[in-house]
Specification:
The structure holds two protein chains of two kinds. Chain A is of the alpha/beta class. Helix content of chain A is 44%, strand content 12%. Chain A has a single domain, classed as Rossmann fold (3-Layer(aba) Sandwich), CATH 3.40.50.970. Chain A has eleven helices and seven strands. Chain B is an alpha/beta fold. Classes of the chains: A alpha/beta, B alpha/beta. The structure holds thiamine diphosphate (TPP) and magnesium ion (MG). The site of magnesium ion has 6 residues of chain A, from loops.
Amino acid sequence: MLDIDLLNKKCIDIRKLIVNQIGGLGVGHIGGSLSVVELLVYLYYHEMNIDPKNPDMEGRDRFIMSKGHGGPALYSVLADKGYFSIEELDTLNKPGTNLPSHCDMLKTRGVDMTTGSLGQGLSCAVGMALGSKIKSDDAYIYCLLGDGEIQEGQIWEAAMAAGHFKLNRLIVFLDYNKMQISGTVEEIMDIEPVIDKWKSFNWNVYRANGHNINGIHKSVIEAKKSKDKPTMIILDTIKGKGVSFAEEAKVLSHSMTISEDMRIKAIKELDSEVDNL
Amino acid sequence: MIPDNNIKEMRQILYEFLDQKMEEDERIVVIDADLSKSNGTYNLRKKYPNRAFDVGVAEQNMAGIGAGMAAYGFIPFISTFVPFATRRICDQVAVSIAYANRNVKIIGSDPGIAAELNGGTHMSFEDIGVFRSIPNMVIFEPVDVIQLKKALPQIVEYEGPLYIRFFRKWTPTVFDEDYEFNLFKGDLIKEGKDITIIASGIMVYEALLACKKLKEKGIDGELINIHTIKPIDRDCIIKSARKTNRVVTCENHNTIGGLRSAVTEVLSESYPVIVKGIGVQDRFGQVGKLPYLKKAYGLEADNIVNACMDIINN
Ligand SMILES: Cc1ncc(C[n+]2csc(CCOP(=O)(O)OP(=O)(O)O)c2C)c(N)n1
Ligand SMILES: [Mg+2]
């Protein structure tokens, strides 16, 4: 059963951890971290077969943050799940940290793949899905892509391979926040018609509101019925979601400096959202 | 170090040059891959919408488009961060640009530790090694805004593939406005007789500090800047080594494949002397700010001083 109230509450907790992490340092990739919170909360608190006490468990589901700069969002979830301590979040990007800007499987407990050079994660997910098929371990391989990221050619090499190999347990999400660094995705390098693109690569394609856990859930249930195709779930999201200064900054929220005042305001704002639940 | 507000950022100089040069020379085109704000090229698109493009997060495509435009008579400047300008697009550079010998200028920003908080994935210590072993490639690493300003016209003048290893932010100046720049000649920054220090990029400033510290110890260091690592100015290196018989190289790069390798290749064939390499000792990058990273990788003036004393005392 999907406990929506609990998960929605969790999203606020995670957003606070993200704001404190990046705010504590004073700068970071806040926009693209805040846009993926509902997805991560849904996967890590409801859907994935994982064990924080045994991060290397055989046959576990995997998650690949292909847009590696979303690290702070993933770290918040992993810490809250108990992979490491909440206090460790304060070390984000500080000398000697286990929590670098971009996800690193050698440094961070619970991170399944090293990413940060955009466009590489989906190929790694295809490799894992192939591995899982050989081992017949019934794992699901989840992967998250940025909408700017899919401008990389390697994404489409991987997409073709996943369709070709009929990787039905590969479920991929697109964080369609419509923004990259230098402008909107539409003005920089339009990815539309994005549904048709993935369909024509022999994928199932669904589309959902990326800030509505129910909608994400319904799409994943459909994806899991697939017998012979990988699934792309396009999530319509808002860059900076849930924190006014980040939402208002739009494209500039990609990586921004955050003062102590801004951090405190954002935490207050998120706290007041709890009352509105 | 506190930035001096009277000195512009490197990317401002790049922007000002391109802005003016594009007006004079219709062959110049600029291609970015979603990092134009970082590299200072963002505003060119407003003034030259037909000759300044962004291809999105697609560096391999950017390299190929650059090669194609060069084959059509244009002079493309393609720009992104160092790792994506070098190892990500290595085959496109090797084949479409270098092997086909197309006149493409490759701008890779944030060399080595300058990637700072972007960490390991963005911190290239191998780019010089990778490009040095590709024929036709010229590798240029500017030291400061004065040198960059003097270099850019010569870079446009030079016909062929050329890589600019581009520190894009504020950096202290080393050269005077009246300094004479030659793209293919090393710079003798300080004459000395006891030991030769050969440095590139941000390490030149550290080497200058090291020379001052050595002086206090009674050591007279000679400081050479190699801004063009390939083709390297052999004469200037050999001449200095003949005088001092001792060499220390300083680079913000892996000592395998970079400046140390280039210098030892020259000396081992003509005038073998002991060469010690200050630089990254075959390690990957990590997150941190410049002062921390300089310390972590042994790229401080004191490391240079110690290497010099080691050679002199043994
Ligand atoms: C290969 C590569 N090229 C460039 C970059 C620099 N970069 C980091 S994030 C980013 C924009 C990504 O946009 P998007 O995928 O839409 O991310 P989001 O909006 O989710 O933050 C770029 C160009 C990179 N990390 N990797
Ligand atoms: Mg985006």
